[in-house]
Amino acid sequence: MTGAAAPGPSADPRPAGPRGPLTHPAPRLLSTAQDGLAVAWRNLIGLRRVPRLLVFSTIQPLVFVLMFRYVFGGVVAPALHGVSYVDFLIPGIFVQTAVFGSMNTAIGLATDMQTGLMERFRSLPMARSAVLVGRTTADLVRNVFVVALMTGVGFAIGFRIHAGVLSFLGGVLLVLAFGFAMSWIFAVVGMAVGDPETAQAAAFPVLAPLVFASAAFVPVNTMPGWLQAFAVHQPVSRTADAVRVLVLGGPATADVWQALAWDAGIVAVFAPLGVWLYRRAV
């Protein structure tokens, strides 16, 4: 008489996931990164196949550059005490571009939820956080393209670098880091509302005060006193001032550290919240 075969000594009693029993944090992190890059590539291919999405996402910052440079520049210039308005403006345009670009994260994730793509991702052997990592990474790549375009437009209308190329590249990296952090805020918005039209409508009331009540386009000291208290300390102003110092020259340490602290704080709060909402949604 023979009984049922007992598990061998090498059998692992723990339930194995689609990729096997990953217990070490390093392989798990590597697997999540690979899955995130795969999703990011899928989103970037979508931009290549529908190029009008990329074209229209660059029109708004172009309009802002030309409008502020030639319509409002004459009014603002006297408050800058000898600094060219176009040199003051372009770092603010970089930050504004990153902030408004992050709204695409909310719209893209809400669209994926509405079309059922999230459920298809859920059925695949991939890390759950990879969907959010892939979306924010793809938007980071798009920001690289838009900032490069804005740099070329800025040079064409008189913008110049005063603090060296390496310092300028440091400012660009700071802008990209801020755009990546803001994408996590709007990943939460997209996951919470689950509808692209609602996501777009919900994003604007958040973006407008951050961008326009800031140091992105005008000096904060031209604003009413009660508004300056908010405008000086909010993340758009901190990042715009840090990038401006890196481009125009001057002691940048305090401004850069404050901007990086905002980035780290935003990601620390909103990345876990976004993953939690994703797990609840699918």
Detailed description of the structure:
The chain is elongated, with a radius of gyration of 22 Å. It has 11 helices and no strands. The N and C termini lie far apart (48 Å). Helix 10 crosses helix 11 (253-281). Helices cover 75% and strands 0% of the residues. The chain has helices spanning 25-49, 51-76, 85-101, 103-114, 117-122, 130-156, 165-193, 196-212, 225-233, 235-248, 253-281. The model is unreliable at 1-22 (pLDDT under 50). The chain has 282 residues and is mainly α.
Tell me the overall shape.
elongated
Described by strand count, sense and barrel closure, the largest sheet is: none
Q: Strand-residue fraction?
A: under 5%
Radius of gyration: 22 Å
Number of E-type strands:
0
Spell out the helices and strands N to C. HHHHHHHHHHH
Number of helices: 11
Query: Uncertain runs with pLDDT below 50, 5 residues or more?
Result: 1-22
Rounded average pLDDT: 82
- Percentage of helical residues? over 70%
Q: What is the rounded distance between the termini?
A: 48 Å
Content-based structural category: mainly alpha
List keywords for this structure.
elongated; disordered N terminus
Describe the secondary-structure layout.
Elements: H1 25-49, H2 51-76, H3 85-101, H4 103-114, H5 117-122, H6 130-156, H7 165-193, H8 196-212, H9 225-233, H10 235-248, H11 253-281
Helix pairs in contact: 1-2, 1-6, 2-3, 2-6, 3-6, 3-7, 3-10, 4-6, 4-7, 4-8, 6-7, 7-8, 7-10, 7-11, 10-11
